[in-house]
Amino acid sequence: MTSIAGAAIAAHWASESLGRQDPQLLANYRRDWDTRFQKEMRTMLRLRGVFEKLTNSDLESLMEIVATPKVVLKLSQSDFDFHASALLGALGIQGVIRLARAVTSAEVRALLVNG
């Protein structure tokens, strides 16, 4: 579950449920959570699968792409609940292309090594 925004959704439906004395309203929490976070969670799970295959050298290369002052500034001003979207937006097209190259080469190497 993600941070404060998820808690805010839960608090909203708990309040509605208590106010209307209808515990079935609590089921709306999951719908609202999915609407707000499901796409981001799927993206993060995909990225996790990719990152688990990277070597230390690959991760260092990725950090060189990500740890630029421009990207760091944009990330510091972004919504904490949307890490993947914030990162991709902060990288811009050129950064995403560099990131894709680094990840693709790691994926190809993993295929060749692991068969």
List keywords for this structure.
mainly alpha, elongated
In short:
The chain has five helices and no strands.
Q: Could you describe the 3D structure shown?
A:
- This protein has 115 residues and is mainly alpha-helical.
- The chain is elongated and about 60 Å long.
**Helix percent band:** over 70%
Structural class: mainly alpha
What share of residues are in beta strands? Answer: under 5%
SSE order: HHHHH
Number of domains: 2
Report the span from N to C terminus: 35 Å
Count of separate DSSP helical elements: 5
| Overall average pLDDT | 83
What's the arrangement of secondary structure elements?
Elements: H1 3-20, H2 28-52, H3 56-66, H4 69-76, H5 83-114
Helix pairs in contact: 1-2, 2-5, 3-5, 4-5
